[in-house]
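Researcher: Re-running this chain for the archive, since the previous output was lost when a drive failed. Same request as before.
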Amino acid sequence: MAQSQLDQWQGEDDALNQPPEGPATAAAIVLSPQPDLEPERPRWQRRGAIAAAVIALGGLGGLVWWFFLRTPPRPYVIDFSPSQSQYSVDSQGSPSLNWHISNPRQIDALIVRGYAPDGTLLSGPEEYDLSGSLPVSLLPYCRETRQALTCQEVPTQVQEPGQYRFELTLLPRAGLNLPPEQASSSLVTIADLPLPSVVELFPQQVIYSELGTPVSANNPTLAPPVNEAGILVNWVVNNPQTLQGLRLAVKQPGGGALGARQFLLRDSESPNQVTLPEELQPFCQLGEDLVCQGVPTGMGEVGKYQFELTPIPIGVGPESEDFPEAKMSEVVEVQPRPVRIAAFNVNGQPAQPNYMIPVPPGQGLPEFRLDWQVEAGSTARVEILPSPGSVGPQGTLPVRLSPSGSTTITLRVTDGQNPPLIRAITFETFNPNPNPPIVLQHGEPGQAPVAPGTAPAEPSNQPQQRLDPLGDSMRDAQNQREPGLVRPEDLRDRNPEDLNLGF
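Model: Regenerated structure tokens:
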């Protein structure tokens, strides 16, 4: 039967109250394990300690692998492209490149090359050393971290027109024992210089009058006269930034050249910049187009002209056949000054068409003085016919009459294009004292009349002819039909200066 709880507590107290045993027995008791004295640790603590030990061993192994056993990260090209796909030579720039590279510290160098589409090397190689810090040439364009190298708009050395494909080569560090890494860009086009061309070339007016032509309201159809500058022309040329010069030639319509002049648009001190020459500065404006108005040509002589303007591009020699197409203007005409006979006088008085000059027998022929003045241009020709022929536009000439009959003098003026102007004068001489009338003496019937102071003629058997077969009655009848006619007998005693010789 089981003991009661009181008995058990009493038993334990008795044991504690017993006297100690000997030293050997006490020492044995002390050295024996006492598991009940230290409580056992919880299971989660034991597992945490094991996990910490495993982590410590793993970290130690990881460090050993990182420093001694792992393969370093391989560099590669994330992106490689041109900044633009289209360029032009006139932009004064070269293509630029962008790239993004991982692990730049595993790279010894970058190499950039430019190839034609068929694989021909056109530029490079351009090498950048990355074994240390970034090279100075890349500092303005690149940003580097441990993980990546990013570069924007790195310039190239390509400037010639054409098509290019760029290649970027990464050279890993020698200790990595890795092959080079390469990447190619898209195609880049550099357009050639646009050739200049003449858009317009036209004269300021197509018809001029000769220099010195008077302008008046009486000639409303007369073209304005040309001045000392000659014919004026206008033109428009595009792409002037590629111009080296201009050549302006003047030609005859359908004929050869009459002359030419050149305008240089490049200054020796700044050959890369278009500069207007001094002779064009008052007439031209330079912008997107070269616009010139009223450029003097110096051509002002009478005639017909055509102008030709040829643009000369940069780099083209004067004997080259690569000139752009020239532009031809329409035909311009300079008309001669209209001719006008300002004065045509005989003895200082306006000339009349006809003159009757009485010349008594035995007297000399009177002399007359002819003077003229003609307004005309450079192409005018003035003639006095039949003699002396060509004369100046003004002058004085004595007139010598023919002893008998008439003398005609003609003034003829022409400008070489229009019908001539003609003024003619006729001088007709006559004898104011004709032969005296014959006085007949009546004799025997059938005998001829005898003039005073002559002996009568012998009788003849031939019938006598009448000296005046018309008879006085016919003469009187004629005088009656022409009452205004002055008979020669009335002019015998009058001076030639008093006669009205014109009609």
